[in-house]
Automatic annotation (TrEMBL):
SMART domains: SEL1 (SM00671). This is Tetratricopeptide repeat protein. SUPFAM superfamilies: HCP-like. Coiled coil: none annotated. Gene3D superfamilies: Tetratricopeptide repeat domain (1.25.40.10). The lineage of its organism: Bacteria, Bacillati, Actinomycetota, Actinomycetes, Kitasatosporales. It comes from Streptomyces mordarskii.
Length: 609
């Protein structure tokens, strides 16, 4: 449930719409300046509604200091949207002990930061203050750790108070527990019969992709699933060991334990285990190990379609194109019809969707091979191949710098496994950063698993490394962590990080002043789009002189929307004739600009004609 600022609430019906806004603003400012507590919030709301949050924040602070809990909550939300999390927490805490809304906001903030115990405490406190949202969210946290009965009781209370979210959540948990009981009963029957296959089949629905959200929201269900698969494995199902490992692997601290289970399944003769080990090795950037496991999976009776596919992609990434084509054609799916397809980490290549999606992936990979062969820019550069013996000799005699230089050459030649070895041998922050980028951007590794390779360079002030960490977290859906890293990168001078901060501030937080500052910083790095966005923002608030140079940069960078706004800026500083010339440019470009937007977005586009 999203937080709302006090300024988002319904307008005061006592306000006369016929009153001149400028007169009303002056009256409220005078009253607030005179120290009238009731005017602090009213004036802050007016400024916030006008997008002037910088001016509003001090008045919100005065209202909060005077005991206005809604003002405290508004301040917290504004600072949270700006990525200023400690300040957001401070303002929530000023009223959380007496206001359910602030207790709710504080609990969410703590939960997002990973402090589950703190979140539970404040949800419980907020519920005692009468916040139904706190009751609901607190119950969800109880359910997450398996306190089902208490969670359901509290959800029933919230539902009785009219909380639709509580009603839906309670129903979902009850259905989940019924399913859990059904799995237990089916497994017990298989255990009684001593049938490994039946034991495994009893739990097949646990890995249904539609249940992924359930396991993410209720970690206790992960533990329940793990226990069920352990019981199935005890009956003799090697496949159950693999699925048990898939659940254990959700906890990074238990990675070795998960891998050991899959290796045990492989030792017991389950061929699909090798495929899972290959996928995991690839995700971890262990390219040679991944290839070995994929080959092992394919050597099993009947082969393994998706091991062949992954081997093909692995070879494409390393520009072993003839091998890649052989592996992709070995799937038997390129051009075939009526064959079931699959995807994802599935030990047996089980059908997870229509075949055409799987076939399409293989066809695209084969097309990519043809495109690479036809494009010299995508092939290993001959000049680096010629330099390689000299660099190898220096590496064998030298230290970290020579090792890095040799690794870099191997990297350029797409000899990724060898490059990884030499980058690791060099071990410097620069080398580790190059290793992480190579494995993530080219080698197929999972971004979050590569972050430790980026961190040493970021710690030394490498803005690009900090930005890349932010990007990885953003792609993983962790906005808070992404925002922290983008802020670090922007403070180190990274233009795209500043652009991201500005965009999210404007689009997600509705804070145009804060956004404009970040756009300006991004524009200083030479980026054209944020120069346009900063200039447009300045025109909208009447800062025409400040806007002009930024919009000229955008026009020089061929930004199609910039001419119209430059014309407005020039008109604002009294240079009407020059403004007319730019309006003519804007009018000529208008049809093309309009065509880039959908119908609804196009309605908001100013027509310069």
């Amino acid at each position: 449930m999203a937080d709302r600022t006090a300024a988002d609430q319904d307008p005061d019906p006592a306000v006369d719409p016929a009153v001149d806004p400028a007169v009303e603003a002056a009256r409220l400012r005078a009253a607030a300046a005179a120290g009238k507590p009731e005017a602090y919030r009213a004036y802050a709301e007016l400024l916030t509604g006008q997008g002037r949050l910088d001016e509003a924040l001090p008045w919100w602070a005065r209202a909060a200091d005077a005991g206005d809990a809604d003002a405290s909550r508004t301040l917290a939300i504004c600072h949270k949207d700006r990525g200023e999390f400690p300040e957001a927490e401070r303002w929530y805490r000023t009223a959380a002990d007496r206001d359910g809304g602030c207790a709710f906001g504080l609990a969410r903030l703590l939960h997002e930061a990973g402090d589950t115990a703190g979140a539970e405490t404040w949800y419980e406190h907020g519920a005692a203050l009468g916040s139904v949202e706190c009751t609901t969210n607190g119950a969800v946290l109880l359910a997450a750790r398996g306190e089902w009965d208490t969670a359901l009781e509290r959800l029933a209370e919230a539902s009785a108070q009219g909380d639709d979210i509580a009603t839906r959540t309670r129903g979902a948990i009850e259905n989940m527990l019924r399913d859990l009981e059904g799995w237990r009963e089916a497994l017990a029957r298989a255990e009684a019969e001593g049938d490994p296959e039946e034991a495994y089949e009893a739990l097949r629905d646990l890995l249904d992709p539609e249940r992924k959200a359930m396991f993410a929201r209720y970690p206790r269900m992960v533990a329940e699933a793990e226990e069920l698969y352990a019981r199935a494995a005890a009956v003799g199902s090697a496949k159950a060991l693999v699925d048990q490992a898939l659940f254990i692997a959700r906890d990074d601290s238990r990675w070795d334990e998960a891998r050991a289970l899959v290796e045990r399944a492989h030792e017991r003769g389950y061929d699909g285990a090798a495929y899972v080990l290959g996928v995991w090795a690839e995700e971890n950037g262990e390219l040679r190990t991944a290839e070995e496991w994929y080959r092992t999976a394919d050597e099993a009776d009947g082969g393994h379609i998706w091991a062949c596919f992954n081997l093909g992609v692995l070879c494409v990434r390393q520009r072993r194109l003839d091998e890649a084509e052989r592996w992709l054609r070995a799937t038997g799916l390129d051009g075939a019809e009526g064959v079931g397809g699959a995807g994802g980490v599935d030990a047996e290549g089980r059908d997870r969707g229509p075949f055409d999606e799987g076939e399409e992936r293989i066809v695209r990979a084969l097309e990519d091979i043809a495109a690479i062969r036809a494009d010299p820019e995508r092939m290993p550069p001959a000049e680096w191949e010629e330099r390689l013996p000299e660099l190898r000799a220096r590496a064998e005699e030298g230290g970290p710098d020579a090792w890095y230089a040799y690794a870099d050459a191997l990297d350029r030649l797409y000899r990724l496994p060898e490059a990884a070895e030499w980058y690791r041998r060099a071990g410097t922050p620069r080398a580790l950063l190059a290793l992480g980028r190579m494995l993530y951007e080219v080698g197929g590794a999972t971004g979050l698993r590569m972050v430790p390779y980026y961190e040493p360079a970021a710690a030394e002030g490498d803005a690009g490394a900090a930005y890349d960490i932010g990007r990885i977290h953003d792609e993983a859906g962790d906005r808070r962590t992404a925002q922290i890293w983008f802020r670090r990168a922007a403070d180190l001078g990274h233009g795209r990080a500043a652009w991201w901060l500005g965009w999210t501030s404007e689009e997600r937080g509705g804070d145009p002043q804060h956004a404009e500052r970040w756009y300006v910083r991004a524009a200083r790095s030479g980026l054209v789009p944020p120069a346009f966005l900063a200039g447009r923002s300045m025109v909208r608030r009447g800062a025409y002189g400040e806007a002009e140079p930024l919009l000229r940069v955008a026009c020089e960078g061929k930004h199609e929307e910039a001419p119209y706004w430059l014309a407005q800026a020039l008109r604002g500083v009294g240079r009407v004739e020059e403004a007319e010339r730019w309006l003519r440019v804007a009018a000529a470009a208008y049809p093309d600009v309009l065509a880039q937007y959908g119908k609804m977005a196009g309605l908001a586009m100013p027509d310069p004609r």
